[in-house]
């Protein structure tokens, strides 16, 4: 992990706030939709789950999303900054150069008492926090 992070741009919460205020980046939440539904997200962040990143960012992928243009500025975050470091490295390997990640992740954002946007839907799988809690209860019963 240390070797990976040496080759990445890591932003502090304050640095990310500056970029958000200037409108110079797209903030990308790579956490699972359940994490987003339970904990919220950085206001204005777009969701691109870690498992779909390469598919959505790669211009040659049949699943490429036009909003992820190669010349854009992207700042990734996860919960603690580990998954986002690996995700940033993967996106750099696709040829994206203007990428960074939030070093302390969403946890650091929350601990810095920054605003959090509530996420009201988990897509077609979960409609509420109660649905997630129920899925955990069901999973425990099956074991």
Indicate the topology.
Blueprint: H1 2-6, E1 10-11, H2 13-22, E2 26-29, H3 33-39, E3 46-47, H4 53-57, E4 74-77, H5 82-93, E5 99-102, H6 105-111, H7 129-142
Parallel strand pairs: 1-5, 2-3, 2-4, 4-5
What do these coordinates show?
- 42% of the residues lie in helices and 11% in strands.
- It is of the alpha/beta class and 143 residues long.
- It has one domain (2-142): Oxidized Rhodanese, domain 1, CATH 3.40.250.10.
- Helix 3 (33-39) links the parallel strand 2 (26-29) and strand 3.
- The chain is globular.
Descriptive labels:
alpha/beta; 11% strand
**Largest β-sheet summary:** 5 strands, parallel
- Highest CATH level, the class: Alpha Beta
Overall residue-averaged pLDDT value: 89
Q: Supply the CATH architecture.
A: 3-Layer(aba) Sandwich
Strand content: 5-15%
| Total tally of structural domains | 1
Number of strands: 5
Portion in helices: 40-55%
CA-to-CA gap between the ends? 33 Å
Q: For this structure, what is the CATH homologous superfamily?
A: Rhodanese-like domain
* Helix and strand run: HEHEHEHEHEHH
Order of strands side by side in the largest beta sheet? 1-5-4-2-3
Radius of gyration: 16 Å
Structural class: alpha/beta
Outline the low-pLDDT stretches: none
CATH topology: Oxidized Rhodanese, domain 1
Identify the overall geometry: globular
**SS element count, helices:** 7
């Amino acid at each position: 992990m240390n070797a990976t992070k040496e080759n990445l741009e890591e932003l502090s919460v304050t640095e990310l706030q500056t970029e958000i205020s200037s409108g110079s980046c797209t903030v990308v939440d790579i956490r699972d939709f359940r994490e987003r539904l339970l904990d919220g997200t950085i206001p204005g962040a777009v969701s691109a789950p870690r498992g779909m990143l390469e598919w959505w960012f790669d211009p040659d992928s049949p699943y490429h999303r036009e909003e992820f243009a190669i010349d854009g500025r992207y700042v990734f975050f996860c919960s603690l900054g580990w998954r986002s470091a690996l995700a940033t490295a993967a996106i750099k390997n696709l040829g994206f150069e203007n990428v960074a990640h939030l070093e302390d992740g969403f946890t650091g954002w929350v601990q810095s008492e920054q605003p959090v946007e509530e996420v009201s839907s988990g897509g077609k799988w979960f409609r509420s926090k109660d649905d997630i809690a129920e899925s955990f209860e069901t999973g425990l019963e099956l074991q």
